[in-house]
């Protein structure tokens, strides 16, 4: 066996694998550089989007956020410039913000956009078509400046467009850049929606404060408590469906001079023999408009009572005075006006299409309606109103009410109606309740009928007048 010298044994040449390793190291190094570059780019984009998210959470002013939008858009898409165009509620188009790295390019783009927007706004009030807007901008800019855009959608309604501009011929509109542009546009839409919700909330808060003021004024205009009328016990309550209601009731002395004299001499709120007006009304509708008309009705009626006419004449004069205002507001008023004379126990009245009050006759335990002919206040300027009169006796009770009682609806959809009210009123009187007891009983019957979970769909007002015997007079 012949030994082979060591120096001649076959051994791979050292340079061969070295050359192979050197050749393979170049793409590996390039790959590492690419990964590092992508990582840096990803961090840059994340930081920019985080800044945009922070601005969205922190800025209270929408304009501050909109100033930032084109800058962020240009940076995350590596573009030379960006523009934000919004559509206003009045149909006008507005260039909100423009960012461009090159000043000359920015001036050129701004001139083109301003010219196109002015033309659109001056042409007609019809909404601009996004495709038409993009086409006009591309046509005016020419082929030198490349253009990309995406819509800004708020509740699936396009409220503007976000544009990206580039003069780099090698600039590629990749899917990633498209998504980033859409992401910025979506955050801009969120900022716009949040601002509108804030404006709406502030408006609602102002309306709530105004409603509180209106409700407070209305409560002050309604009688704070029932007056003390000789020989009569009164109870009244008004529950509004909203903060401000259209129901109205009032107690008006027909002779203020005599009332003041007796109050000064006797130190009480009533006068022997001074007649009092007891009024109840209902303005068609609810809320602030009805409350305003109710206030107007109260003032005009109180002035009319001083003329000392009959109830029918008072309603006739009131109708003529209020007709023009009610016609313009397309609203009407039902009103029952009565005057009670403590000396004679005579109740005189006139009705302007209001729910007739119910009269419980203690002697016969029967119920009658108090009604006269008459149309709604504000329906016809020449309406005439009849006069009625009844003689009350000790133990008699009269209830004045609005249609919120008879129109109350149960969970099954049934109305309380007048028959149920008459039956409940009769039961309350037969039980020997006083005026306050009758008031509480009738409201309790309504609540049981409607159900505790249901709210009043209409204002409910009730006035109870009960005639006392002579020995119980104050």
From TrEMBL:
Annotated GO MF terms: phosphatase activity
InterPro entries for the chain: Bact_Sigma-Reg, GAF-like_dom_sf, PPM-type-like_dom_sf, PPM-type_phosphatase-like_dom
Listed name of the protein: Protein serine/threonine phosphatase
Domain PPM-type phosphatase: 229-467
Pfam families in UniProt: SpoIIE
UniProt cross-references to SUPFAM superfamilies, sorted A to Z: GAF domain-like, PP2C-like
The keyword Hydrolase appears for this protein: yes
Organism, scientific name: Rippkaea orientalis (strain PCC 8801 / RF-1)
